[in-house]
């Protein structure tokens, strides 16, 4: 992974917090290191799927509209607790919601976890990824998806 991708993953892990990381570890039947690896793979899948959606003609406009909406937010989101769930997340929440199942299926294939367990883990991560992307978009006020996923380094 590049430093910028590591930065995004690290920001997601920080937003997730130790309690939610322990919840993922329990869910997956692993230790904290295994949970971090699961989060790492899940974040990579979600961001990769998001990049692919942005590159496909049929979904590129939706992804760009979601990024633009997130960038126009009045104030960045502060933590998952203050977020209010995916229903309040706008277009970006919808885009991430559509990408969650394929990402979870890929994680299940790669890790050997039961698909339902991988889906639950990814479902726990989606609001966290959404909060990080929205905060980054609002702070950046413009730019594309690559800048949000790469920490603005591209």
Topology:
Blueprint: H1 3-28, H2 32-55, H3 60-71, H4 90-111, H5 115-140, H6 145-149
Helix pairs in contact: 1-2, 1-5, 2-3, 2-4, 2-5, 3-4, 3-5, 4-5
Number of helices: 6
Spell the H/E element sequence. HHHHHH
Sheet-strand content, in percent, reads under 5%
Main beta sheet, described? Answer: none
* β-strand number: 0
The outline comes out as globular
Structural features:
154 residues; mainly alpha; globular; 6 helices
Describe the structure.
It is a single chain. With 154 residues, the protein is mainly alpha-helical. 75% of the residues lie in helices and 0% in strands. It is built from 6 helices and no strands. It has helices at 3-28, 32-55, 60-71, 90-111, 115-140, 145-149. Helix 1 packs across helix 2 (32-55), helix 2 (32-55) crosses helix 3 and helix 4 crosses helix 5. The longest helix is centred in the first third of the chain and has 26 residues, at 3-28. It is globular, with a radius of gyration of 14 Å.
């Amino acid at each position: 992974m590049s430093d910028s991708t590591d930065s995004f993953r690290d920001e997601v892990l920080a937003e997730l917090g130790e309690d939610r990381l322990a919840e993922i570890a329990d869910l997956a039947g692993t230790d904290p290191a295994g949970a971090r690896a699961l989060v790492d793979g899940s974040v990579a899948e979600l961001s990769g799927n998001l990049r692919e959606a942005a590159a496909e003609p049929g979904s590129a406009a939706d992804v760009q509209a979601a990024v633009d909406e997130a960038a126009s937010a009045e104030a960045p989101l502060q933590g998952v607790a203050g977020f209010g769930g995916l229903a309040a997340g706008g277009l970006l929440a919808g885009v991430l919601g559509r990408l969650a199942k394929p990402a979870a299926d890929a994680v299940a294939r790669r890790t050997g976890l039961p698909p339902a367990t991988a889906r639950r883990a990814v479902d726990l991560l989606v609001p966290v990824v959404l909060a990080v992307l929205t905060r980054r978009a609002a702070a950046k006020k413009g730019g594309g998806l690559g800048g949000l996923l790469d920490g603005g380094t591209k």
